[in-house]
Fold non-specific serine/threonine protein kinase.
Amino acid sequence: MPQGTLEDHLYKDGSRLAWLQLLKICKGAARGLDYLHTGTGTQHGIIHRDVKSSNVLLDENFAAKISDFGLAKIGPTNQARNLTIKSDVYAFGVVLLEVLCGRPAVDTRLDEEQMGLAPWAQDCIRKGKLNNIIDSRLRGQISSNCLKDFARIACRCLDNNPNQRPTMSEIIGKLDAILSVQERQDSSITEGKFIDKFQWFLVLK
């Protein structure tokens, strides 16, 4: 794909996707998984079984496409001891944390308590230390409400009880709401800057 993978942009030097772009990519990937789970016309849905940032491809407009169906299988999706659609949801929660934190699911260069992204990030979120986990490249781009809501939906995806995890359709709704709030805030900030510049122009004139 023209723009490579989400993983490329999260970890390769020189790539700097804006927060709004990342939100749209997450929403697009969620739509792809939702289609697999509910929109294929099969009785049980399709479980991807290998959801990760390297399997989220980006086209020329950075629209997300789910790829690599080598491990995918048609249900049953509700067997407690096998991989289910809720296993895909868990994996997608890890991808959301990768996007927010700018680090891979496992980083062996770090201390043991920080090596696994999911438990480390969840612990920080529970302790109210959200600012400690944000990718430094995204600081100043995320509104506080959007940050809390994004972290909340990621943690719900990672719930130890699969039945408590949201569906991909629910995740799309949450990401859509977060995206709308962020767009409104960014628009308001841009408008404010324009007004300030215009006022300075009038003063100087």
Remarks:
- The first helix runs from residue 6 to 11.
